[in-house]
Structures are given as C-alpha cells and as structure tokens.
UniProtKB/TrEMBL annotation, chain A:
<keyword id="KW-0813">Transport</keyword>
<keyword id="KW-0653">Protein transport</keyword>
<protein>
    <submittedName>
        <fullName>Preprotein translocase subunit Sec61beta</fullName>
    </submittedName>
</protein>
<keyword id="KW-0472">Membrane</keyword>
<feature type="transmembrane region" description="Helical">
    <location>
        <begin position="35"/>
        <end position="55"/>
    </location>
</feature>
<keyword id="KW-0812">Transmembrane</keyword>
<dbReference type="Pfam" id="PF03911">
    <property type="entry name" value="Sec61_beta"/>
</dbReference>
<keyword id="KW-1133">Transmembrane helix</keyword>
<dbReference type="GO" id="GO:0015031">
    <property type="term" value="P:protein transport"/>
</dbReference>
From TrEMBL, chain B:
<keyword id="KW-0811">Translocation</keyword>
<dbReference type="InterPro" id="IPR030659">
    <property type="entry name" value="SecY_CS"/>
</dbReference>
<feature type="transmembrane region" description="Helical">
    <location>
        <begin position="236"/>
        <end position="257"/>
    </location>
</feature>
<comment type="subunit">
    <text>Component of the Sec protein translocase complex. Heterotrimer consisting of alpha (SecY), beta (SecG) and gamma (SecE) subunits. The heterotrimers can form oligomers, although 1 heterotrimer is thought to be able to translocate proteins. Interacts with the ribosome. May interact with SecDF, and other proteins may be involved.</text>
</comment>
<keyword id="KW-0813">Transport</keyword>
<feature type="transmembrane region" description="Helical">
    <location>
        <begin position="117"/>
        <end position="136"/>
    </location>
</feature>
<dbReference type="InterPro" id="IPR026593">
    <property type="entry name" value="SecY"/>
</dbReference>
<keyword id="KW-0472">Membrane</keyword>
<keyword id="KW-0812">Transmembrane</keyword>
Length: 57, 463
C-alpha cells in the first residue's frame, strides 16, 4: 500500500483549463459555506437589477 | 518577505470556500456544478449598473478564453484567475520562483499565491475598466466609474469563489473549464441560431435564420456559403469546418502511443502504458490565447490611460488576432486571400509560442520524463530489459515524451490557426477547448459513476 499512498499524494489537483491548483492543505482564515457563495451571487445580481430599474443611470 | 510569500499571505486572508467534510455524491456534485454554471450565465447576462450599452466591446478571443461578456457583471469573466494561474505556472516552471511542488507547504503556498495574484488582477482590471469608462463616456464625476469598478470587483470575486466551489470537491472538475465550455457553447448556438437582426447587414446573426431569410427574399446565397463581405455573418464553410473539427479532435484524442512495461506486482506480466498522442492536450493553445487576450484587454484599457503604451500593445496584438481588429474583413477564408502576409505572421507567432508553452507545461505539470519515471518505479512498474532505475527509465521515456510534446503542441496550434482562418464558429481555440473539456468531463463522469457503483474500487485506487 505505501506505493499507492505515495502515488496519490503526487497527483496534483489539476484544472482542465490548464491551471494547477492544490487544495490538500488549507491555510485560509475565512472559510465560507458554498451555499453563501450562491446566495451572495444572487443577491448581487438582484441589487444590480433593482438599482438599474429604480435609479436609471 | 518574498513576493510569493506576500501573495500567499494575501491569498490566505481572502474569503475562501470550505472543503466538503464528506465527499458529496455524484448527484450532489452535478447539482452544485449546474447551479454554479447557471449563476455564472445569469451574471453574464446582467448589464453593469452605469453602462447604457456596452461601452467597451470584447474581442471574440477574450469572450472565448476568459468566458467574458462585454458590459455585464461577467465583463472580466475568468480572465484574472486564468492570467494569475498562467503567470505563476510559468514563473515556477522557469525556476524564477523557487517552489518545490512535491512538498505540501509549497503546494499550498503556490495555490494561495495564485489566488492573491488573481485578486490583484481583479482590482487592477476593474479600476482600469472604470477609468477607461470615464474617459470614453466623458463622465464629469467619479461616482459612476467607481460604482462600475465596485460591481466588477465584487462580481469577479464571486466568479472566483464559484470556480473554487466546483474545484474544491463540491462540484465536478473545475469551474474555469465549465465556464469556458458554457461560454463557447453560447457563442456557437448564437452563430447557428441567433435571430437578432444585424442592422448593417440586414440579416439575422445566426447561420440558419439567415439562410431562411435569404431563401425567402431570394437574396445572395453565395455570401452564406463563403462570406466575403459581412463582418458578423457565419457561413457554411465555417459550419462544415466546425463539425469536421469536432470529429478530428475526438479522433486525435483517442490515439495513444504504447510503451511496453512489466509489473513486479503482477508477477512480471507484460503490458503497455498508453501515452496520449495529444500529450499536452489543448494547453499550448490555451496559454497562447490567454497571452493574446490579455494583450488585447490591456491594449484597449490603456488606450485611455497611456496612448503610447497602447500603441505598442496594439502592434503586438495584431500578431495574435486574425484578421486585424482594425479591419471590417470577416473572420473567414476571404481574409486569408486578402491578407496572406498577416495570416502567415499570425500562424507563425501562434505555432512558435504554442510549442514553447507546450514544453514549459511538460516541465511544470509533472508530465516530464523524470517525474513519470519516478511514478512508474513507485508503482513497481519496469520497462522490459531495463533495471528498475529511475534514471534509465527516464532516458527511455524522454525519447517518447519530448517528441510527443513537441508534435502535439504543433498539431493543436495548427488546428487552432487553420480553424480560425476557415471561420469556425466560436474560433478554433474555442472548439478545441470545448471538445477537450467535454471529453474530459465524459471520462470524469464515467469514473465517478463507477466509483459510486462499485465502492470496492475506492479502496483499490486509494480514495
């Protein structure tokens, strides 16, 4: 098994668009739940649409 | 503190998506991926507040490679993420930044520094865009340009988080790939079925609606076969080349070069290890296009800040775009006939850079003979007639890997160039990327499905 374990560690987390990123170790200080990313994006879209309707530039 | 350390510290303090505590099921991954793409597509159809219409238009290459849509919340698309990634990979690959990507600490630092650099690009591009907007539209105060820059910073950071969400294991594959695929499919669909009328040419933008309109009106059908005059008119040659190209890429991807091996674990049974004929996949084309798209982007943005810098960038930019953006010649065979020298320069620059980036990618991504030889030795695999010595196996692999990297870089670059010259829908680069991403997703789905159906496989492959 050690060979298999070592091989797994060597495999980079590779994006299919040519970006190499590794997420095995995390040192980020502010971690957020993925649902908040979706909610945040929807809130941003809603605010921009609403402001455009209410106060046209 | 080095520059990499500073970027890495910045990457650490930026909000990040947390990793899933348990591996999500395939259905959950599909759901997160689909939701992520839908949110991205919605963002790319919501106009930025403060812009009446598109104040700055994006070139097709930018739209494809950065999955961006002009004048919307996705104005910058994945440009900052992909540019930061490209810069970091080249710096590490060329040893200008000394990081050992076989250690966990340096791997984490590399990823965090990429994120930090991507954030700096988000700030730079957003404020440059806001500034360019002030100059181009003549806003007397800074409120609207600052509002536009603010929207871009927040929206592009959310795009970064959406990519992270998919890449960190909540979704399938990578967000960046999905966004490029979705963007290219949107362009192809538009080129085929777009019903919006282009006033200057009095025809719908899509090929099929144009065909119907031309047949009904008894118009000039020849222009629809090979377009020679209209800048926004996809033609039949482009459609046929698009379909042909899809099959060609699928065929080339399925070709493998077999290397004979024996395995100690399997009692010396002789087998072969396949090396993909397109060894570097579409990476060289991605890198050349990112470079070209960035030069385009900064050339248009700096034109409002420093005309002299913009002139230099404009000159460089012409080598990456064919036909040149200053002309109204359509993107088709006609352009090659009209400007053969320009076509030749474009092809030469693209192919030479493609080969250079292909070789850099082999070194930086662990596809080089030394890493592959070590992987084979670690897995107890030998090449018949060779001792289990990484150096000897490396020498054998080098005979296959470097020629494969060289020729596959030339092949993908030539495909992208020729396809673009034939007026392929969504550009040659876009089709190459879309097909290779779709095929990788097909393999990924098959892998995930088999892991779910046969849990024993998980233990066998060490998941």
């Amino acid at each position: 098994m050690p060979a298999t374990k070592k091989k797994k560690e060597n495999v980079p987390v590779m994006s299919m668009a040519g970006l190499i990123r590794y997420y095995e170790e995390e040192h980020e200080k502010f971690k957020i739940d993925p649902i908040y990313v979706i909610i945040g994006s929807i809130v941003l879209v809603s605010i921009v649409v609403l402001i455009t309707k209410i106060i046209p530039p | 503190m080095s520059f990499t350390d500073a970027l890495s510290k910045l990457g650490q303090v930026l909000p990040a998506v947390k990793k899933p505590e348990q591996k999500p099921s395939l259905n959950q991954k599909l759901l997160w991926s689909i939701v992520g793409v839908i949110v991205y597509l919605v963002m790319s159809s919501v106009p930025l507040y403060g812009i009446q219409s598109s104040a700055l238009s994006n070139f097709l290459l930018e739209q494809v490679i950065f999955a961006s849509t002009a004048g919307t919340l996705a104005q910058l698309g994945i440009g900052p993420i992909i540019t930061a990634g490209l810069i970091m990979q080249i710096l590490v690959g060329s040893k200008l930044i000394n990081l050992n990507l076989s250690t966990e600490d340096d791997k984490a630092k590399f990823t965090e520094a990429q994120k930090g650099l991507a954030f700096l690009f988000i700030l730079l591009e957003s404020f440059l865009f806001g500034f360019a907007l002030t100059r181009s539209t003549g806003f007397s105060n800074l409120t609207i340009p600052l509002a536009v820059a603010g929207q871009l910073v927040v929206a592009t950071y959310f795009i970064l988080l959406l990519d992270e969400l998919i890449q960190k294991g909540w979704g399938l594959g990578s967000g960046v790939s999905l966004f490029i695929l979705a963007g290219t499919m949107k362009i192809i669909f538009w080129y085929m079925f777009g019903i919006v009328n282009v006033q200057s040419q009095n025809l719908p933008v899509g090929f099929f609606p144009s065909l119907v309109t031309t047949l009904i009106d008894h118009g000039d059908i020849l222009t629809l076969i090979v377009n020679t005059t209209k800048p926004f008119q996809p033609d039949l040659v482009g459609l046929v080349t698009t379909i042909g190209l899809i099959f060609l890429i699928i065929y080339l991807t399925s070709i493998n070069v077999q290397i004979p091996i024996t395995s100690q674990k399997l009692r010396g049974i002789r087998r072969t290890v396949p090396l993909n004929f397109l060894y570097v996949s579409s990476i060289p084309v991605i890198f050349v296009s990112v470079l070209g798209a960035d030069i385009e982007l900064f050339s248009s943005l700096t034109s409002y800040v420093s005309p002299s810098a913009s002139t230099i960038l404009n000159d460089i930019q012409t080598a990456f775009i064919f036909p040149p953006p200053t002309t109204t010649i359509p993107h088709s065979v006609y352009a090659v006939v009209l400007d053969p020298v320009g076509a030749l320069i474009y092809a030469a620059v693209f192919i030479v850079l493609g080969v250079l980036f292909g070789i850099v990618w082999v070194e930086v991504s662990g596809l080089d003979p030394a890493t592959q030889a070590q992987n084979l030795v670690d897995a107890g695999i030998e090449i018949p007639g060779m001792r289990s010595n990484p150096k000897m196996i490396e020498a054998v692999l080098a005979k296959y890997i470097y020629p494969l990297a060289f020729f596959s870089s030339i092949i993908v670059s030539v495909i992208a160039v020729v396809a673009t010259m034939l007026g392929v829908y969504g550009t040659g680069v876009g089709i190459l990327l879309a097909v290779s991403i779709a095929m990788q997703y097909y393999s990924l789905l098959a892998y995930e499905r088999s892991i779910e159906m046969y849990p024993l496989l998980k233990r066998l492959i060490g998941e």
